[in-house]
Amino acid sequence: MPELPEVENIKRGLERKILNKTIVDIKINKKKLIKEPSLENFKKGLIGEAAKKIYRRAKLLIIQLKKDKFLIVHLRISGWFLYGNQEEKARVIFKFSDGTFLNYMDQRLLGELRLRKDYQNLAFLKNLGPEPFEINLEEFKKVLKNKKTKIKPLLLDQSVVSGIGNIYAQEILFLAGIDPQRPASGLGKDEIKLLYEKMISVLREAIKYKGSSVDSYRDLEGNKGGMEERLKVYSREGKPCFVCKKTIKRIVLGGRGTCFCPYCQR
Ligand SMILES: [Zn+2]
User: Fold this and answer.
1) Is 250 a catalytic residue?
2) Which of 99, 126, 153 is the last residue of a domain?
3) Is residue 241 part of a domain?
């Protein structure tokens, strides 16, 4: 599932490729992905339009169009964009006046595309907490202070901090040396500080290396990210820890698989 770094990379790719390009045609191969308005109005509202500005909010893409409408894209589990030629496997295809295409790819068909006059009132945007880059250490401490929730599921709670998913939550906790099962409220001051620093540094590193292609995620040119080779603990069950050489363990927390080193993470 694309997380903050992957969606940021898609956003930067879209800025490079499609800004100010006029949409001349749209082909919708999977109708269920268009959540609003009707298919007809979705097409009508977009043809002749062009992206003026592109925003990312947590894991969501917001494409502001020239006439102050917004195309809001929720990639969910397996959504991504491929730019260039028309792709046979694309679910939605945008054609531009220069003859290029933007293909919306989504193997599992769980993504959501919306064309709206606003985006601020969408429930899944309204309920988002601050992004890791928007919150300072003091605020982060306050957020964790009274939460009895285990720290790993808490990092995944988008209303607490937004943009972190299952890959980076595991990486952050490994680098901070914190057992993912500990209650957030039980963390000491120094542990919270380290957790905060690792949260920022892991996400920065992942953006720098263009995200992790552990599943369907690719950039706009179809290239894999470079971060998956740098992951320390994600999906490494049974393998030796890079630090202590003991075996990485996998447990399920809040319904999500979680790898950690029981020796390095206390
Ligand atoms: Zn270890």
Assistant:
1) no
2) 126
3) no
Residues 21, 102 within the same domain: yes
32 is catalytic: no
Asked if residue 153 belongs to a domain, the reply is yes
Cα(132) to centroid(ligand 1), Å: 26
- Residue 204 is part of which domain span? 132-231
Separation of CA 108 from chain center: 16
Distance 2 CA to ligand 1 centre (A): 27
pTM of the full predicted structure?
Answer: 0.96
How far apart are alpha carbons 205 and 95 in whole angstroms?
33
Q: Determine whether 91 is an active site residue.
A: no
Catalytic choice (11, 56, 59, 150): 59
Residues of the chain with pLDDT under 70: none
Q: Which of 77, 102, 126 is the last residue of a domain?
A: 126
CB burial string 225-250: b at 16+ within 10 A, e below: bebbeebbbbbbeeeebeeeeeebbe
- The reply to whether 3 belongs to the active site is yes
Q: pLDDT of 193-240, one tens digit each?
A: 999 999 999 999 999 999 999 888 999 999 999 999 999 999 999 999
In a shared domain, residues 144 and 186: yes
